[in-house]
Amino acid sequence: MSEPLSVWTHRHAVVRRGNGPRTLLFAHGFGCDQGMWRHLVPAFENDYSLVLFDYIGSGRSDASAYDPVRHVTLSGYAEDVVGLVNALDLKDVVFVGHSASAMVGVLASQMQPGLFSHMVMIGPSPCYINHPPDYVGGFERSDIDAMLDMMEHNFEAWADALAPVVMKHADRPELAEELDASFCALDPSIARRWARAIFLADNRADLPKVQIPSLVLQCSDDALAPLAVGDYIARHMPQSTVQVLRATGHCPHMSEPDEAVAVMRDYFRNQGI
Fold first, then answer.
1. Catalytic residue among 12, 49, 222, 253
2. Contact assessment for residue 155 and residue 188, using Cβ atoms and an 8 Å cutoff
3. How does the average pLDDT of the chain come out, rounded?
4. Ranges for the AB hydrolase-1 domain (predicted)?
């Protein structure tokens, strides 16, 4: 027997806003929570039904539901998304995923075809590690190993170092400070496993399997997802539309929300969403 709706809403701290005919499901990135979408919510809640949630171990989720076996891969998080959509009985869902959540959406869409009608992928990367000569992910394996080692031995130093790299915008330190605080709010043991699941994953082979229209928002200068990644996605994912933003950093929905909203609205209008 499937679990009752109340279990899912409590487990993932589900919040619903708006009353529109189409549903936007917002899935936050690694080290974040649903609060990071606060700048986009007002722009869409009058026209759409919005569903926000926290992944297990993030935000106000029920950390006791964390499964150290299932959640060591992105597929485990994708199973959560599939279960959540079904429990909420959502239809005509547009999945909006930031960073690692973009690939979670890709995997979820394959687990249950028809789960989503469209996807919006903000700062996605199917693989963070370079695989020359055909793929530039932005990092060598040694870079990733060093980052994971830092997480293991000095979690706070890792958060302090990574947050400004991810955000950029040195002239707006409050952005990096918020992300740093969000990183530090994580259970370090969960964060380390989640980071390994993300930064050691290779989902390049999953891109051609995506058969739904998808908007890819890529920042013009992103340390985690360089422009070459967007080019690769454009070549290998059918029905993808890659839009390079003027925004820099890895979190345009936080740093330049007006631009992100404008591009998303144009895409939705063109797609009849």
1. 222
2. yes
3. 96
4. 24-262
